[in-house]
Structure formats: structure tokens, C-alpha cells
Give the backbone structure.
Amino acid sequence: MTRRPWTLRMSATAVSVAALAAVAAPAQAATADGTATTDSTAAQVDYATWQKDCQAVMDQALPYLQERIAEARPGEKQAIVFDIDNTTLETDFGFTYPQPANKPVLDVARYAQEHGVSLFFVTARPGIIYWPTEYNLEHDGYGVSGLYVRGLFDLFKDVAAYKTAQRVDIENKGYTIIANIGNSATDLSGGHAEKTFKLPDYNGQLS
């Protein structure tokens, strides 16, 4: 497939960024004292706590991946599947574009891609923001082997079923999904991954 060059023309940028903002709007979050907030500048599950909790999960993921990558079978095409919002990108911690990478996850992703593992991204974001999403991931340092966004008919599907179907498609391309990383049960249910790692969503407070 021919890759469309990334050019920031005024009209395209306005549409793309507006759509991205709508999808990435911060979810309701809890402050340190347990009260709810919809502050658009920071989802008040405080950032330092979220980063610490993400790092704890990735501290479990990395040794597993190091071992699993080293044990790759001859000819095996290994892959990791990632969610995007509040998994690979810091969606709910103040809107900017490009959104910053979630560093604990980026560090693990970089290790994997440097050791020949393909990175796939499966998101419930709609297809209209495919290109700005792909640009954002690559800008932050993720190697994108495939990006799955919801098409028109996918918008009406159960999210977990939609994401499972995309992992099946990746497997049908000959990949072994050695890990699936996300922050929601809908990212991880349905199988078709050797191991799953769940990042915090604080009972759904992060999207």
C-alpha cells in the first residue's frame, strides 16, 4: 500500500485535530481525595501515581518479553498488540497534539521493536483520525506495523468483539501475538494473545 505523505495543510489539519480532540477528550477522573473532576488539563488520578502504576505493570512485562523474544521459534513472526488511549499515549493528561507517549510503555515497545517484534495498534478511535493517530505514534517513537481503527460498521460493534477480531486478523497474517497490552478489559478479553498486561484505568476513570 502506498503511504500517504504527512503534510499539514490548513483545512486537513483543522478537521483532523478537531476529530482527535473529540475522541481524546479527558474522561471523568478522581482527585486524590476521591472526588470527581472533568478538568480538561489533567485527569486528576494524579499523573505521578498513574506513571508509577504503569511502570509497575511494565516491570512485569519486560522480563517476560525478554525471555519470550529470546525463545522465538525459527521463522516465527512475533507481534505485540497495544491499545492507544492511556496505554501508548497520554490521552487523559491534558490535550496536546501530538500527544506524548506513555513512557513506561514506550520503553517496552522500543525494546521489542529493536529485537524484531512487530507492533500493532488496535483502537476504538474512528477511521477519520487514522492519519493523525499514525503520525502521533510514529512521532513519539513507536514503529507502526499496523494500525486498526473503527470503520463505519465497526462503530456499532461491541468494542471487545471488535478488538478481538482485529487480533484474529493479525494472526491470520502469520503473526504470533506474544503480548496484548491495554488499560481496559475490552482491550484484553477474547483471547488471541499469549499473555495480557493490564494498565490501570482506575475503575474506568481513564478512557
Remarks:
- The helical segments are 10-23, 47-70, 103-114, 130-140, 159-172, 185-188.
- Residues 1-19, 21-43 have pLDDT under 50 and may be disordered.
